[in-house]
Amino acid sequence: MNETGRALNWFTPARFGILLALLIFAAFPQVILGLQTFVVRDFGFFAYPLAFFQRQCFWHGELPFWDPYNYCGAPFLAQWNTMPLYPPSLIYLLLPLTWSFGFFCLLHLWFGGFGMYFLARRWTGNDFAAAFAGAVFAFNGFTLNLIMWPSHLATFSWMPWVVLAAERAWCNGGRAIFVAAIAGAMQMFAGGPEIILFTWVVVVVCWIQQVARRDSPSLKRFCHLAAVIVLVAALVAAQVLPFFDLVTHSQRQTGYIDTRWSLPLRGWMNFLVPMAFGDTWDMGVFYQYHQEWTSSYYLGIGALWLALLALWKTRNPRVWLLGMVAAAAFVFALGENTFVLPTLRKILPGLRLITHSIKYLAIVIFIAPLLAAFALAHIQTATGERKIALRKSTMVIGAVLLALIGVILFWAAKFPFPYDIVSRTLLNGFSRAGFLLLTGLLLFLIVRGAEGKARQLLPLLLVVTAWADVFTHEPTQNPTVPPWVYQPGLSQAKLDLQPQPMLGQSRAMVTPKAYYKALGFASQNLQDNYLVNRLAAYANCNLLDNLPKVDGFLSLLPNQADDVNTLLYGKTNADYPRLEDFLGVSQISSTNIYSWRARTTFLPLVTAGQKPIYLDDYSAWKLLASSNFDGAGIVALPVNDKSLVTVTNRTDARVLNSKFETQSVEAEVQASEPSLVVFSQSYYHDWRATVDGRPTPLLQADYAFQAVQIPAGRHEIVLAYQDRAFQTGAAISICGWLVCLIGVSFRKRMTI
């Protein structure tokens, strides 16, 4: 290898790992040192409270199957994106949460970049190209946005590792099959279903491309890949079986579709001028108009430049294939703005479960760094006339990109949106043009071949320039606040509610008006912004205070629970005092979103003696909103359950005491005759009921809740959550892990 080659291949795995760690530290020193923590949007309102609840369950020695604090109870482990079975979750379960949860995210940022390094290194055989790809994969607007969804970030960080391991498995077989299965299982445990699907789409496409080359027996490669898929399914059965069970009983059934947040037709412009056609809002983060899922998908001008160069000049079937997949993903990301994805949804209804079409950009963000790596490897190996032609092509693409930036800025200046700040857009565009020129200079010097120390510094400067471009492309995507804003019990101490909603005693209710007010609330001070929403019990903030309430923030709900939530929050002025009494609402939002008003008419969460009436589901749901609903006097049961009930009228029955735990309920009831006992807790088929230790049918009461019939006398009722899908899946997973561990142990070690 000549001197230039040695300089460009200076990026050994160890050196790149250290460099990437330093870049992450430079971007987030306050988080790594524990001085600040992330807070924006779903990190503070969704992910952190769920991690806090999971941690509480962990230290009580139980798996978090059920969340009793949100939606009058809802499945937790089956949500999947709550990461209850993801082994690296031990980082934040064992270490102080206010520091370790942010560190967990940044560790996956590093891990994903490191995985991309190894994948690009295998495909290009070039350390410098691999280092550039790894840095771009870790530092781009899309990946940085995923920090607010730790489960998505973890899933995305495993994507290059899974593709790499799967390819090694179908090529080599043996131990590589078990290694690939473990990598695939780890990604699936992280819990981002769409990114997992995208990962395996890439795997299958790459497999087809290699099989088509016929450089090894197709049947053998098919068997290797099939073995990986079967093993992955077995390893994660404990997680995916409860998930699929919940999906079949959830609001996301046939006909469900969420068409929000497709990539706008003008969205291609934000690959060049990231702050064109958008505004800074929601805790100081910039978003495009009509697209609020990701705050950015900016790759960096250098990565885009090199990716386009690879598609134009690299004569490599894999590059062309990756380019076609990326182009298709970009079209899908446009969602409702073209006919393509809506048409495919009609042909493949399962695509409806992929919410927010812009998520398809994950494939583009995965492929672009690889294409850039191929371009850099091609630059390094080109000689003679090819080198001259490559230099010209590089400059042509750079000139086109520079001209496009000029067109975008002209458009933004002449035809701004009402809330555009044109001066800000212009500054953003000119600064991207500056990075383009700097990148062009570095590429020119690398292609030309510099002398002396410059030969060693140029590759490093190109990587750092790509990082700096993304680091400065917008206001910070992940602002931070002091960790104390997550202090447990903070809102209880500040508000001093009387009566205080507590598990098993009563609940709080955020009114629809207060909910939408909190949704739109924004303060320039991030600390105050979060504290106000926390005092308002917005989203999942209530989990930090062990505050049960009637709404929440989860991806999947039992269908009936979702219908009740729709009833309560479908209209801004919705008001159902009788239903609120039945739900045990002792505190309700007042005029200000962070102030509360006591209610004195709420019922206990366990009541007895109701008269049964039998209604179909729709009639029972409508009854909840009716002034005729009397949760203490009547209970609506399904018509099909009539044969299970002997009670015909109101009875003399008293609840002597009750106790709610995370996934169990105990009640002692005295009844003068056979009676019904109603539990104001969400009905789900995994709950089991016993009376004095003997199993008894658990009835679906008042459309979405629970009831049990007891005989005359004094009886102890126990409701326990028993996830049969998890139990079956756990048995399969244990067998799968034993097979993989044996397979790995009895094969000689392989190198990457």
Outline:
The chain has 27 helices and 20 strands. With 752 residues, the chain is an alpha+beta fold. A five-stranded antiparallel sheet has the order 13-14-20-16-17, with no helix packed on it. A four-stranded antiparallel sheet has the order 10-15-19-18, with no helix packed on it.
List the helices and strands and how they pair.
Blueprint: H1 3-8, H2 13-27, H3 29-32, E1 37-38, H4 42-59, E2 66-67, E3 74-75, H5 90-94, H6 97-124, H7 127-138, H8 141-145, H9 150-172, H10 175-190, H11 193-213, H12 218-235, H13 237-248, E4 278-281, E5 285-288, H14 301-313, H15 317-333, H16 340-347, H17 361-381, H18 384-414, H19 422-448, H20 454-471, E6 480-481, H21 490-495, E7 507-509, H22 512-520, H23 526-535, H24 559-569, H25 577-582, E8 585-589, E9 596-598, E10 606-608, E11 611-615, H26 617-624, E12 634-638, E13 653-661, E14 664-671, E15 675-679, E16 687-691, E17 694-696, E18 699-701, E19 705-710, E20 713-721, H27 724-745
Parallel strand pairs: 7-8, 11-12
Antiparallel strand pairs: 1-6, 2-3, 4-5, 8-9, 10-15, 13-14, 14-20, 15-19, 16-17, 16-20, 18-19
According to DSSP, the number of beta strands is 20
Overall form:
globular
Termini separation: 21 Å
Biggest pleated sheet:
5 strands, antiparallel
Strand content: 5-15%
Task: List low-confidence stretches.
Answer: none
How much is the average pLDDT? 92
Structural class determined from secondary elements: alpha+beta
Q: Helix count, per DSSP?
A: 27
Q: What is the helix content?
A: 40-55%
C-alpha Rg (nearest Å): 29 Å
Widest beta sheet: strand line-up: 13-14-20-16-17
